[in-house]
């Protein structure tokens, strides 16, 4: 009975949608072709029993890891058999949805050789890597240093006699610690180490080092290697073999130093090429950009689960003889719909960031390095903003699902455990925001010197205006005007930036100021990054958006994104006199009416993500809404339910029960 009623809830919900959902699916996917590829790969993975993943939380580490190896090998087999393109293969791996050494091989090892190798090095190493004849990882972080890349201790000392580098770990803290894929799978690594020639330290650089034999996978001489142990959560990121690695005077040929940024000649002379040294950090810029795109996937997945379940779940009250769907509670809407809006916002900012990254790459090839600092600031800042919001949002979605959200079968605990390290890897989120703040302070300080701000900082050219312009909101409807909202976010960011720059100028040493004001600098960077997301959403809406009602839905979501941020950071907007308290109260009224506008479309808006039940991996987020019987089904699959009387009853339960009986008689 309940099961049928639950199914009905979602059918009814879907019939209320006021927009063309197929058109929205294409917008979400980023185009017709992208939608077709994504849809095909998702179905391919979902229909293949090797890719089942509902048992991850109960497998022990060894079984779990072996199963990951099996899935990765099967994925590779399918990629070859079906002659999948690079785009299709990467989508297939995405839908397999299991962190694995292949993420680092394709996501970092290949990109670092592409970005930091010479033409010759690329020709030598990439074909082997593309065919997976070698498996590589990215070994930068050490036990003692992660954020402070310049503080790495591993050494690469040039031996001119043998024309080789000697890679060595001089201290315990110089052990490589964390690299994914290193622990068990990789045969090779790009190792970041201090380049030393003729007794002189030339700073860090990447080196290709073979770690394990290609015949029997045993570590090569001088290599001490292993897995760093269990991480947060069962299943979750434990499918990944994050590893440790120590070198005892390991020798590699000179041509295995990645030489795009610096070269070492046969005589041991170090030659700096004319590209900026920061390109050594280029792979991190690339991966940060992909992490932003990935944030909208994780966020939309959690939101899809919470939204569908909120429509199925009923609690208290009465609507036509039924209890109230929890999605109809204003409190539920005010927690859920800003997250739904953020998922769309991050999708569009991710698309834009991909474009920015391609643009900077093309410019670098043409030896135009002018936009590199901005690309670094945008990728760092948006990586930080989107991953922090997404991690918090997954936890919020768990709470939005009440008690059942805490069950592994809701999919949310594992999603959270897999996702939270994104706030740390590829740059700790606070460290990255401080990089953005540094960039903003530098941009402001150069305004008078004729240096023109570029791209996302162009608004600072209108600084005088932004520092005193009043907010143009007289009536509630003014809050729906995109130019009013964008200018408001510009004014807030500009005012906070200038206030911080003024405070900084009071310090005789800028570095002291940076230390003392770092918490404020993080707020400034956050305000700037939120402005970028809002303005990229608005720009997206200025493009041609086909499909009946699609644009209207996206406009509502864009307003929800911006106004819910305004509400959350009201202190910033009021303390910088960007708005009055009357305007804040009008914004709150508008938000409520926007929630009402989104409410009938909520299920269709999450259906537009086009996730299969396999990918969602959630009983609560099932497409058919058939939640309750499936919760039972999942519970009954638990190994604890395999026997009626639990293992251990005779040893540990029965004696206790008997003893209590005797005590009671006494
Ligand atoms: C099923 C799940 C799969 C999901 C996968 C989805 C997507 C991902 C896809 C592929 C990836 C695969 C798997 C993902 C999973 C895990 C991967 C994790 C891998 C790692 O986790 S891998 C280690 C990453 N580890 C860091 O992330 C260290 C952070 N630490 C730093 O990054 C630096 O150390 C910094 C910047 C903090 C200090 O650097 P510093 O000490 O040199 O100091 P300073 O601040 O003075 O900078 C001097 C001048 O360089 C400029 N500058 C700085 N950085 C730049 C850059 N990148 N580009 C251009 N310019 C840059 C500055 O703006 C300044 O410029 P100016 O002088 O003009 O002011
Ligand atoms: C799951 C996972 C996978 C990873 N994969 C890889 C990989 O494949 N390859 C690789 O090389 N590395 C990898 N890493 C390492 C990762 O990149 C680092 O852990 C990350 O860059 C953070 O550095 P840290 O550990 O040194 O943190 P720390 O810098 O020690 O951070 C500790 C605290 O100090 C604060 N802090 C640090 N510096 C400052 C500052 N200047 N100002 C203010 N606060 C500061 C931070 O905000 C944080 O709160 C991985 C890490 C994880 C968790």
UniProtKB/TrEMBL annotation:
GO terms for cellular component: peroxisome. GO terms for molecular function: acyl-CoA oxidase activity; FAD binding; fatty acid binding. Residues 281-441 form the Acyl-CoA oxidase C-alpha1 domain. Keywords: FAD, Fatty acid metabolism, Flavoprotein, Lipid metabolism, Oxidoreductase, Peroxisome. Pfam families: ACOX, ACOX_C_alpha1, Acyl-CoA_ox_N. Residues 482-658 form the Acyl-CoA oxidase C-terminal domain. The active site is at residue 426. One of its GO terms (biological process) is long-chain fatty acid metabolic process. Its cofactor is FAD. InterPro entries: ACOX_C_alpha1, Acyl-CoA_ox_N, Acyl-CoA_Oxase/DH_mid-dom_sf, Acyl-CoA_oxidase, Acyl-CoA_oxidase_C, AcylCo_DH-like_C, AcylCoA_DH/ox_N_sf, AcylCoA_DH/oxidase_NM_dom_sf. It is found in: Peroxisome. Residues 20-135 form the Acyl-coenzyme A oxidase N-terminal domain. Its main location: other. FAD binds at residues 141, 180. Belongs to the acyl-CoA oxidase family. This is Acyl-coenzyme A oxidase. It comes from Nepenthes gracilis (Slender pitcher plant).
């Amino acid at each position: 009975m309940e099961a049928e009623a639950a199914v009905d809830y979602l059918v009814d919900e879907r019939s209320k949608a006021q927009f063309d959902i197929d058109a929205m699916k294409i917008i979400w996917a980023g185009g017709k072709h992208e939608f077709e590829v994504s849809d095909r790969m998702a179905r391919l993975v979902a229909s293949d029993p090797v890719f089942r993943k509902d048992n991850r939380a109960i497998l022990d580490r060894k079984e779990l890891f072996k199963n990951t190896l099996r899935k990765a090998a099967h994925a590779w087999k399918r990629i070859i058999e079906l002659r999948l393109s690079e785009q299709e293969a990467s989508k297939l791996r995405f839908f397999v949805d299991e962190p694995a050494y292949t993420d680092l091989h394709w996501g970092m090892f290949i990109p670092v050789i592409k970005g930091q190798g010479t033409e010759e090095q690329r020709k030598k190493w990439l074909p082997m890597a593309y065919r997976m004849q070698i498996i590589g990882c990215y070994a930068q972080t050490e036990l003692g240093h992660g954020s402070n890349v310049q503080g790495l201790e591993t050494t690469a000392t040039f031996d001119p006699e043998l024309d080789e580098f000697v890679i060595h770990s001089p201290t315990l803290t110089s052990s490589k610690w964390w690299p994914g894929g290193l622990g068990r799978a990789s045969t090779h690594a790009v190792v970041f180490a201090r380049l030393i020639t003729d007794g002189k330290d030339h700073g860090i650089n990447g080196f290709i080092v073979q770690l394990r034999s290609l015949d029997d996978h045993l570590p090569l001489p001088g290599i001490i290697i292993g897995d760093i142990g269990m991480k947060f959560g069962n299943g979750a990121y434990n499918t990944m073999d994050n590893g440790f690695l120590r070198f005892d005077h390991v020798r590699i040929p000179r041509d295995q130093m990645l030489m795009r940024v610096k070269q070492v000649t046969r005589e041991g002379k170090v030659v700096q090429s004319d590209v900026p040294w920061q390109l050594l950090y280029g792979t991190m810029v690339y991966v940060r950009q992909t992490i932003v795109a990935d944030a909208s996937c994780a966020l939309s997945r959690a939101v899809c689960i919470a939204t569908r379940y909120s429509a199925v779940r009923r609690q208290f009250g009465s609507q036509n003889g039924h209890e109230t769907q929890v999605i109809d509670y204003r409190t539920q809407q005010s927690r859920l719909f800003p997250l739904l809006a953020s998922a769309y916002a991050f999708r569009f900012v991710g698309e834009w960031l991909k474009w920015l990254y391609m643009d900077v790459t093309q410019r670098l090839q043409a030896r135009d390095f002018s936009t590199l600092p901005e690309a670094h600031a945008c990728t760092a800042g948006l990586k930080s903003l989107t991953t922090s919001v997404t991690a918090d949002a997954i936890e919020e979605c768990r709470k939005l699902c009440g008690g059942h959200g805490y069950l592994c079968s809701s999919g949310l605990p594992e999603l959270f455990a897999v996702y939270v390290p994104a706030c740390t890897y590829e740059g700790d989120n606070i460290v990255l925001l401080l990089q953005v703040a540094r960039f903003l302070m530098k941009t402001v300080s150069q305004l008078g010197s004729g240096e023109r701000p570029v791209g996302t900082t162009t608004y600072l050219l209108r600084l005088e205006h932004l520092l005193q312009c009043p907010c143009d909101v007289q009536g509630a409807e003014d809050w729906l005007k995109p130019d009013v909202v964008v200018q408001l976010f510009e004014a807030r960011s500009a005012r906070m930036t200038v206030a911080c720059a003024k405070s900084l100028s009071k310090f005789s040493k800028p570095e002291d100021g940076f230390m003392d004001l770092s918490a404020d600098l993080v707020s400034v960077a956050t305000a700037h990054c939120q402005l970028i997301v809002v303005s990229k959403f608005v720009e997206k809406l200025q493009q041609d958006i086909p499909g009946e009602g699609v644009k209207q839905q996206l406009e509502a979501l864009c307003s929800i994104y911006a106004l819910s941020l305004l509400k959350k950071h009201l202190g910033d907007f009021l303390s910088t006199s960007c708005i009055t308290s009357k305007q804040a109260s009008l914004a709150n009224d508008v938000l409520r009416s926007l929630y009402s506008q989104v409410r009938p479309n909520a299920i269709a808006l999450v259906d537009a993500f086009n996730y299969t039940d396999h990918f969602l991996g959630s009983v609560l987020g099932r497409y058919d809404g058939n939640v309750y019987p499936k919760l039972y089904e999942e519970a009954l699959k638990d190994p604890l339910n395999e026997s009626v009387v639990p293992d251990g009853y005779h040893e540990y339960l029965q004696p206790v029960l008997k003893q209590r009986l005797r005590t009671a008689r006494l």
